[in-house]
Design brief:
- Helices cover about 50% and strands about 10% of the residues.
- It has about 130 residues and is mainly alpha-helical.
- It has 2 domains: about 60 residues, no CATH class; about 60 residues, no CATH class.
- The protein has a two-stranded antiparallel ribbon with strand order 1-2.
Amino acid sequence: MKYEDLNVPAVDSAIRALRPGAERWDYNHGAREFTVWEDSQGRERPTYDEIMDQLALDAKKWMYYEYVRNRESQYGDLKDQLELLYKDIKAGTLDATGQFATFIDKVRSDNPANTADFDTWVWPGDG
């Protein structure tokens, strides 16, 4: 599993994950039924339980990789990072003590990576 492969937890993304390539559907979540289902591969519509299981898995993946999303937002623009590198080069501090390294270290320490394997990781939503 890679962060880039994540789906934002939603019913539509769960259906796409369960039946990739299905052309068109309309799902009434309240009624737990499809009003439209078109799949040129002839696959059956996913069941409500399948959709809910996929949605729970997508939510767990989303939470597992929360630290990555937080890091991305805190790293800021690439031009700002390049500016820090440039200043470190000019100051002769392009090492672990420079502004760039200090900045990156802080973002990483504020948002530590999960050390547990995804399959054994537990989040509060697991009940």
